[in-house]
Specification:
With about 240 residues, the protein is mainly alpha-helical. It has a single domain (about 1-55, about 65-235), classed as Fumarate Reductase Cytochrome B subunit (Up-down Bundle), CATH 1.20.950. The chain contains eight helices and five strands, in the order ββββααααααααβ. The protein has helices at about 30-50, 60-65, 65-90, 110-125, 140-165, 170-185, 185-220, 220-230, and strands spanning about 1-5, 5-10, 15-20, 20-25, 230-235. A three-stranded antiparallel β-sheet has the order 1-4-5. A hairpin with an 8-residue loop joins strand 2 (about 5-10) and strand 3.
């Protein structure tokens, strides 16, 4: 860790100068996966809604423009890249630092469950001065991001089943046909796949808002940390996961 030059206090209640220390949190594979996955998710949402209900039409023969075919290709390509990032993320659960490994995905310690309520209150601006400080993900973020991984898995399973319907009896159908049997048919799988998309539409703006809000309130370079991998944290604070 490096000690930075004195900066203004970022707390909500004090204005005295304080020192910050530089912590390297996120390795380049994590940062790369984050932005690639973000691009894939946005592409999947935009193309997925078009596939389900085309929001603009073209005139003439379908062979003249092949718009739906191109949209479907973009959708499937983004899904494939997202799965690749998921495989790499699983590998990095055992190769990353303590902020990136599998133990950082869930609040294992009893104190983390106590701290979770304090973090929730801080998010609601209720006694934010009592919130515990985490260099990596706090317990609320751990549960939220683990939930997103689970959501992505469900999206992939239902999506690959729908893709397999183009070739019944083919490789994908043999691998993911059980999804349709489990959920009760293709129409239910399609409905579930569509509904899950709305969870992404809820998560993404909340995620961006809370990240930017944390930067504005605490000035600890949370946004830039997912670009550079480094975060500046106050040297006078005790961090639970340090």
């Amino acid at each position: 860790m490096k000690t930075a030059t004195p900066a203004r206090d970022a707390s909500l209640h004090e204005g005295q100068p304080t020192e910050y220390k530089q912590v390297y949190l996120w390795h380049w594979p994590i940062r790369g996966m984050h932005w690639i996955a973000a691009g894939c998710v946005v592409t999947l949402i935009v193309t997925g809604f078009y596939i389900g209900s085309p929001y603009f039409l073209t005139s003439g023969s379908a062979s003249d423009h092949f718009l739906m075919g191109r949209v479907r290709f973009a959708h499937f390509a983004a899904a494939g890249v997202l799965v690749a990032t998921g495989i790499l993320r699983f590998y990095w659960l055992f190769m990353g630092n303590k902020f990136e490994r599998w133990r950082a995905l869930f609040p294992f310690h009893a104190q983390d469950w106590v701290n979770m309520w304090r973090v929730v209150r801080a998010y609601m601006f209720v006694k934010p001065e009592e919130a515990p400080h985490y260099m990596g993900h706090n317990p609320v973020q751990q549960l939220a991001y683990t939930g997103i991984y689970f959501l992505a898995l469900l999206q992939v399973l239902t999506g690959f089943f729908l893709y397999s319907l183009a070739d019944p009896g083919g490789l994908f159908f043999n691998a993911f046909g059980w999804v349709g049997s489990l959920l009760g048919g293709a129409q239910i799988v399609r409905f579930v796949h569509h509904v899950l998309t709305w969870f992404w539409l809820i998560f993404l703006p909340v995620h961006v808002y809370l990240t930017i809000r944390a930067d504005v309130l605490h000035r600890e370079s949370r946004v830039s940390s997912i670009i550079s991998g480094e975060r500046y944290v106050r040297a006078d604070l005790d961090f639970v996961d340090d």
